[in-house]
Amino acid sequence: MKAATVCLLLASSVLAAPQSLEDKYEQKLAKRFVRYGGWESDYDVARARAKKEDKVLFVYFSRSYAP
């Protein structure tokens, strides 16, 4: 029984369609906290906005979903 379960789990993970990095990126951007949080994803736009609002920038760089 254990062997059948392990084989089934392995087969289902192999058959699952892999997501592209672009798809993962779009899914992350579609999350509610990103859409309604007032975040900027363009550095130049964020810099201009920070200057206009007299605020500092909080910048986070990541490669986890970058295409």
What does this structure look like?
With 67 residues, the protein is an all-alpha fold. Helices cover 55% and strands 0% of the residues. The protein has helices spanning 2-15, 21-29, 32-35, 43-52. The radius of gyration is 20 Å and the shape is elongated. The chain has one domain.
Helices and strands in order:
Layout: H1 2-15, H2 21-29, H3 32-35, H4 43-52
Low-confidence stretches: none
**What is the overall silhouette?**
elongated
Portion in beta strands: under 5%
* SS elements, strand count: 0
Integer-rounded radius of gyration: 20 Å
- The quaternary state of the protein chains shown equals single chain
Count of domains:
1
The first-to-last residue Cα distance is 41 Å
Helix content: 55-70%
- Biggest sheet overview: none
User: N-to-C SSE series?
Assistant: HHHH
- Tally of helical segments: 4
Helix and strand composition category: mainly alpha
